[in-house]
Design goal:
With 298 residues, this protein is mainly β. The protein contains no helices and 21 strands. It is 0% helix and 44% strand. A hairpin with a 4-residue loop joins strand 13 and strand 14.
Length: 298
Amino acid sequence: MGQYSITAGTFGKALAVTPVAIGALDPRSAWEFENQSATLGNNYTGSQLYVGGTGNVDVILEGVTGAQDTVTGFNFEPIFTGANPFYAGFTAGSGYFTENNVATTVVSSVYKSPANQPAGLTVNIIADLPGVNLTEAGSGYTAGNAFTTTVTPAGGTGLVGTIDSITGGGGTGPIATFTITRGGAGYSAGDVATIVSAGGTGAELTIVVARNGAVTLASFKFPKIQDAGSNYSVGDIITVDQTGHVEDCKFVVSSVESLLPGVNDVVRFTAVPVGTILPAAVSYVIDSGDATGLVALK
């Protein structure tokens, strides 16, 4: 019979199989006698698979799942009310800058074994920039150069940016326009920051609004999930672990979801001969194979 032997045994049920795309998996049973819902799914619930027409058969084996307890939502209220007792929810932190795919750390509300610790959540963040005015344009600056700042007397730190353009028509000159890229932390309205950039002297910024790199809550809810991780629980406290931040930005997991298998979980049986019963229990049959006449047996 070829490279796959027929499995001995008795089957009391048979069901014609319709392979599906990996993105169309429905965890409800495809067997009517197992399914109490009005709609049948495409989960063959550990059936064995008869192959009526030779070719490749792509399947998800019984017991294979996708990532479990991935993060789907956060609490951004000052108090998290999804647990008892209630406890602090969102804090904006300081010293952050806008960046995608930022790592996080977690303090979990639920005990888990060492092999199932929550991990892998990364987020996109937008951090508030300060409101500043250029009060002294200075001289000798170069367009395109980055700059740092100093404050006298010492106070805020970490405000940096880029010189966009200069005046005067030469290769260097007074600053005309600039962009703040990191808002730093510890500033107060009225602070005067000296711009430090190669070759330039004398330019100063005055802090009008000191937002100090707090993580913004926009209408589309930042922090935004980049990688949902696995093994999280509702109530887990997340800290945005961006290098160089000053005060922690924290928020709470408000919802999680376990995922169905994905493309990396597909197992291929190659060139299966006609009449073979696959020597494995199968949950899903994927449409990337080309064998025909597939029948689930129980």
